[in-house]
Amino acid sequence: MEKSTFIISKMDCSSEEQMIKIKLQSFENIKSLQFDIPNRKLEVFHSGSNDTIFKAIDSLKLDTKLIGKETVSDEISITDDKGERKLFLWVFVINFLFFAVEIIAGLLSNSMSLVADSFDMLADALVFGISLFVVGKALVKKKQVAKISGYLQLTLAIAGIAEVIRRFVGYEATPDYKTMIIVASFTFIANALSLYLIQKAKTKDEVHIKAGKIFLANDVLISVGVIIAGIFVLLFSSKLPDLIVGSIVFIIVARGAFRILQLAK
After folding, report:
1. Fold of the CATH domain 2-71
2. I need a labelling partner for 178 at 20 to 30 A (CA). Which of 10, 53, 130, 162 fits?
3. What is the pTM of this model?
C-alpha cells in the first residue's frame, strides 16, 4: 500500500475536509484519509498511482502540493466514521437551529449583521448536511446536491450584499442593538458549547477534534463581531457598524459557496 502526503494550504477548517472527502469518496483505491487540519496536511493511504487523487484534490482550488509518497504496511487503522457522523450531525443541528433563530431576530431587529451571521450558520449547516445526506449515494447525486447547495448559498450571499449596499446608500432605521447583542451572545454560547463537547471527545479522534475546533472558532469570532457591532450601534447610534460587519460575513458566505461549487465540478 502507498501513502501519499499532501500539503493543502487553504484547508483551514472542517468544511474543506468534508469537501475533500466527498470529492474522493468514489475512489475505490483509497483505503483511508488522515487529516491534520492545523498543519494543512492530508495523508492518503491508497493502492496504485496518486495522479488522479492529486488532480481531484487540486480541482478544489485549495492550493494542493504533493510532498511525499512511500510504501507502508497494509495493516493500517481505518477511521471509524460513526463517531464522526454523530459529531457532524450535532454541528449541523446547532448551525441550522441558530440560523433559524438569527434570521428571525435579524429581520425583526433590522440588523444585517445578524442576518449575515444566520446565513453563515446556514452555509455551515449546508456543508455538513451535504456530507450526511450523500453517504451511500451515487457520485452523480452527490455532485447534484453539492451544486444546488452551492448556488443557494451564493444566491443568499449576493442578495445579502445587495441589501447591505441598499442600506448604505438609502435611509434605514438604526438596528435594535439589544437584540443584536443578546442573540449573538446566545450564538456565541452555542458555538462555545460545541467546542467544549468536541474537546471532551478528543480521545476518540484527535485529528477531527482539532478540525472541528478550528471550524467552530470561525463562528465564535463572527458572533463576537456581531456583539461588537451591537455595542458600536449603541455608542454611536449609527447603522454603519452593523452594515460593515454584515458585509464582511456575507463575503465569507460567498467564499464558501464558491468552494462548494468547485466541489460539484
Report:
1. Alpha-Beta Plaits (3.30.70)
2. 162
3. 0.63
Residue in this structure with the C-alpha cell 449546508, named with its chain if needed: 126
CA distances to 61, 133, 179, 184, 233 from 149, in Å = 18, 12, 29, 25, 33
Q: What is the three-class DSSP state of 214?
A: helix
Neighbours of 223 (CB within 10 A): 25
Calpha distance 204→91 (Å, rounded):
17
At 162 the three-state DSSP class reads helix
CB count in 10 Å sphere of residue 202: 14
Mean pLDDT of the chain, nearest integer = 80
Instruction: HSE, CB side, 13 Å, CA atoms: give it for residue 243.
Output: 18
Q: Decide if 90 contacts 197 (C-beta within 8 A).
A: yes
Residue 106 has pLDDT above 50, yes or no: yes
Provide the residue ranges of all domains of the chain, joining segments of one domain with +: 2-71, 81-263
